[in-house]
Amino acid sequence: MRIGVLTGGGDCPGLNAVIRAVVRKGTGYGHEFVGFRDGWRGPMTGATLPLGLDEVDGILARGGTILGSSRTNPYKEEGGLEQIRGHFADLGIDALVAIGGEDTLGVAKRLTDDGIPVVGVPKTIDNDLGATDYTFGFDTAVSIATEAVDRLRTTAESHHRCLVVEVMGRHAGWIALHTGLAGGADVTLIPEVPFDVEQVAGWCKQVSDRGHAPLVVVAEGALPEGGRESAQHEKARRVRARAGSVASRPGSPTSLEQRTGTESRAVVLGHVQRGGTPTAYDRVLSTRFGLAAIDAVHAGTFGVMAALRGTDVVLVPLAEATAELKTVPRERYDEAQVFFG
Length: 341
Known about the structure:
By secondary structure, the protein is an alpha/beta fold. The protein has 2 domains: 2-136 and 278-321, 3-Layer(aba) Sandwich (Rossmann fold), CATH 3.40.50.450; 141-274, Phosphofructokinase domain (Rossmann fold), CATH 3.40.50. Helix content is 41%, strand content 16%. It is built from 13 helices and 11 strands. The protein has helices at 15-29, 41-45, 53-56, 80-91, 102-113, 138-159, 174-183, 197-209, 231-238, 253-260, 280-299, 318-321, 330-337, and strands at 2-7, 32-36, 48-50, 95-100, 118-122, 162-167, 187-189, 215-219, 264-268, 304-309, 312-317. Strand 7 (187-189), helix 8 (197-209) and strand 8 (215-219) form a beta-alpha-beta unit. Helix 8 crosses helix 10 (253-260).
């Protein structure tokens, strides 16, 4: 078989490990591989690059993706499906491995329904994809954010300041939850649970009164009770501008400083969370997902995604993977609240 491989959506530590595993095991099966450039834009335009053993040698620990990525959606482009069909025919593509998050796998599901054989691999640092316990990239993002929290705490203590650290998580607070627990945050705020500004200030004051510097971890999508994200705020975050960040909304350092009397500062970690070398855990998980994906292709099992269930990697329908966003359950947030204040 001649198999295409693409990576879509935001870049993520571990993408190259998936590509490597697919090619290494698939070559052993006797398959040939074609890399599509820049997500779904590659199949639509026919932009490819060679993808053999030489190309994947040494990429296991490399961040980003050697294939490039984009947020192109062929179903939002006129004639997108027909373009993909045409280029697949011209290139002799028999099947496709699509590595990506909710949007990328949503396209993979529709392509499968339209008769194009696709196997998916879940990728998102937000860990918000259904049908899998964890996605690769999440562990790396949490590790980076936790290290940042550790470093920031020392400078906060030195200057007796309250620090508010914003991490990624527009609709799901998994990164904030795990970073807050691992970093010993005094308050953690997530999109799933609206917060009371006065209560947050109260928790911070409790910490200050004990002679310590309060540290708040907040997901970018967290909002106060009764709050609603403004159109301007949403647009700002869509283009990754920081005008809508924690520094300029309720629960901000300015707001907390006024309520607690403690000098406060904000730090927005931003894209540093998704860049760089994947952790050992993410390298292993990515590799296992890649092996499962090529096994599915080799067996002729399409319309599925590799998923982690407990410690096992299994195949689940793409429809299940994209059915709903996986958000933080209240009981998990209650665990973190034990350590607030």
